[in-house]
């Protein structure tokens, strides 16, 4: 792999382009929006990538034809994806994987537009920002080949990502579904007046979130069981956990709940510069990643 096509250069596309450039690849990018090239070059330079190996064209087919791998980042609309993938499938070499960054759309639906080679369409869903967060969820559609999945997994690993392979497609993939489960209860707790938005954020960021940055839910649960591990946890906390599940909320996104959430965030972050907060988040994430790399 030497050249990646980045199709769509919004926030995700800029981050992907910078990541590929930082890993020594050439990038050919495409976006039809006015001023897209200027914003892209400014964005990758701000992240710290050298834009010298970046080329730009408004023609998505031309970008795909020059690439060894295609990473698409267009809006989450089926009509847009279909129009775009018809072009990409018609232009890219037959051995080139077409990966969508879609956070929730199913690859089977996306691949319907790839009449020539639907078997090479996958979802390669990153977490924002892709140049920083290692996870990529690689999702097959009904007609995706094992060769395409293997190629996508190998490619993402080669550029420093931590890809995971889904065995089946489902809306939201894995990580967004896990986030949605947490958000559901967080929103319910606010709606029921159990806690403030700020206190719920503190409960995660100063509690289990610290452990989750190191190990996943199953490994953390295993450690909490002492010598007996997760078997001990399930034996002793399984029934209470089931009771908690039955008590979890089922919030409805009413205008009243939306106002509670927005007002709560505004109160929590009053006087905080969003750009400074994002820089703080990214700095801490980098420190955590560095610590994980240095630890045995």
Description:
Residues 3-167 form the 3-hydroxyacyl-CoA dehydrogenase NAD binding domain. This is 3-hydroxyacyl-CoA dehydrogenase. By secondary structure, this protein is an alpha/beta fold. It has two domains: 3-165, NAD(P)-binding Rossmann-like Domain (Rossmann fold, 3-Layer(aba) Sandwich), CATH 3.40.50.720; 175-294, N-(1-d-carboxylethyl)-l-norvaline Dehydrogenase, domain 2 (Orthogonal Bundle). It has helices at residues 11-22, 36-47, 60-65, 78-91, 107-111, 146-158, 175-191, 197-205, 208-212, 217-224, 229-247, 255-268, 274-294; strands at 3-7, 26-30, 54-57, 69-72, 97-100, 121-126, 135-140, 162-165. An eight-stranded mixed β-sheet has the order 3-2-1-4-5-6-7-8, with helices on both faces. Helix 1 (11-22) crosses helix 2 (36-47) and helix 10 (217-224) packs across helix 11. The protein is globular, with a radius of gyration of 21 Å.
